[in-house]
Amino acid sequence: MEYISSTLANLLGQSAFASLTLGNLVMIGVACFFMYLAIAKEYEPLLLVPISFGMLLVNIYPQIMEEGGLLHYFFMLDEWAILPCLIFMGVGAMTDFGPLIANPKSFLLGAAAQFGIYAAYMGAMLMGFSDKAAASIAIIGGADGPTSIFLASKLGQTEILGPIAVAAYSYMSLVPIIQPPIMKALTTEEERKIKMDQLRPVSKKERILFPIIVTIVVCAILPTTAPLVGMLMLGNLFRECGVVRQLTETASNALMYIVVILLGTSVGATTSAEAFLRWDTIKIVALGLIAFCFGTAAGVIFGKIMCKLSGGKVNPLIGSAGVSAVPMAARVSQKVGAEADPTNFLLMHAMGPNVAGVIGTAVAAGTFMAIFGIN
């Protein structure tokens, strides 16, 4: 009898119920809510499903993120900036840069949407964060999870990497909810109905030369951008050169999905109750939202300026796609434009600023690294 009671006591002591805290229960609830958004509402399920499941695992079994635990080794690939760079290569292999090549003025919209990053940087400094922590938080405004992880790792901000990554990926997933009210508030119905001229055809030669030239120019001016911009352009060169079909398929499919699984679950697993339920986390999430909203607004406002200067030929809605959530932000521009006029097709026009935003966010990250003397 004593053996049975001792065995049962040991089993009970080893169960998660013996160590679950109120904070763990809160985070399990948050994880279930994210899973609901991903599965029931289909808000970027490729991101939210692994993130929310990693969040669930670490709050039931914290040892999974300790040294020797499975997700600890996944997370090491984040800290070493390997997974973010591989994500960029996959994005490059999946994305058509043609709209940006056909309309180089899109670079201006992509640059304008980075305003939110610098606004959040100043805000974070005012809220008491160190300069490196403020830079790591501010990059959330680009709505680019891989770049947020990359910069936080490079600047040594691993203690806040979890909240930064979760905020960045959450805002990427919630682009369809966050952006439309801002876009509609800053534009008139007439502006939203503007139909843009069809983009010119882009030659194969232009498509091949673009990633090579961008790599040379951007990385020569700002070498710290080489890991991100270089991988982005390498993936696009795979896509456009036409002689490495197998590499294109691998980078844009199998490798991309493997990396998303590893990165998503490890990012979610950084959200243990002890690490996540802190006042600093609330400030990080709030600053990230402010940065993202400011970036969206700046893109739309600059789109309005371009609309005026072009005599009404530019729909301001495409400016919101200047944040680098590819291709979600471009789809939102299309959706809001179609609500005003179902015959209005803005997707390809919005992809130009969207791609420019990816490059712009990487450049912003590289600029912060250069300022702090990080190679």
Unreliable residue stretches: none
The H-and-E topology, N to C, reads as HHHHHHHHHHHHHHHHHHHH
- Number of separate strands: 0
Average pLDDT across residues? 90
Write a concise keyword list for the protein shown above.
about 75% helix, mainly alpha, about 375 residues
Overall description:
There is one protein chain. With about 375 residues, the protein is mainly α. The mean pLDDT is about 90. The longest helix is centred in the C-terminal third of the chain and has 31 residues, at about 280-310. Helix 3 packs antiparallel against helix 11 (about 160-175), helix 7 packs across helix 20 (about 345-370) and helix 12 (about 175-185) crosses helix 19 (about 330-340). Helices cover about 75% and strands about 0% of the residues. The termini are far apart. It is built from 20 helices and no strands.
Topology summary:
Elements: H1 2-14, H2 22-39, H3 45-60, H4 70-79, H5 82-94, H6 98-102, H7 106-112, H8 115-126, H9 131-138, H10 145-154, H11 161-173, H12 175-186, H13 189-192, H14 204-221, H15 226-241, H16 245-268, H17 273-276, H18 279-309, H19 328-340, H20 347-371
